[in-house]
Amino acid sequence: MAKSLCSRQLKKAHLRPCTWTFLSSLLLFSCFAAQAWAATPLEVVKGTNDAVLAIYGKHRVVDAAVEKDIFAVIDAVTDYQVLAGEAIDPLCPTLTAAQCTEFKEVFTRLLRISSVKKMGRARAGRFEYEGEKVAGKSAVVRSFAFFNDEKVPLEYHMASRGDTWVIVNYVVDDVDTVKNYRKQFRSLLAKKPFEKVMGQLEKKIASLEAEK
Fold first, then answer.
1. Can you give the residue ranges of every domain in the chain?
2. Cβ atoms 112, 121 nearer than 8 A
3. Topology of the domain comprising 41-210
4. What is the pLDDT of residues 26-69, one digit of tens each?
5. What is the pLDDT of residues 100-130, one digit of tens each?
């Protein structure tokens, strides 16, 4: 987005008289600088994890206020709409539009609370990074999350959003989050009515929220 905007601005600037040379040069510099400063997928992930670790480092007790600060960090770099859509949309043909919307809302809440509890992706004590692989507007950042003495492979699947990157899926210990939840939900819906499945998920969310 930044690149295309800069390109349009530069084209307009070049059509003006020579008296605008200085302005064009200044605009050229600012556009190149903005592109140079755009964070890479790895930098986005590392910056987010560092911010979360810093929050934990300031608080011996993780209460609701601390979790709120953590959510503010991870929500900014996570596209829950894409995550929920990838997991739930294939199930929606058997549901009403209202049920599909409710399912995505409940699933998003489950994803968020799961990420900050126990073995959630935001509860690791430290991280090691193997690198990133970028292909157009998609990228994968490979890392290891350490939960005490346990070393867990953690991949962040990311998508370009303007001049930054957001998480659209993650693979924990070779388990794809989207595919795993979709499989579980498909199985549950085959055995139970929608209302009972939602009730089960609500109980899970309440249980996670009660964890200290």
1. 2-37, 41-210
2. no
3. Nuclear Transport Factor 2; Chain: A, (3.10.450)
4. 333 333 333 435 799 999 999 999 999 999 889 878 888 988 99
5. 999 999 999 999 998 887 656 667 889 999 9
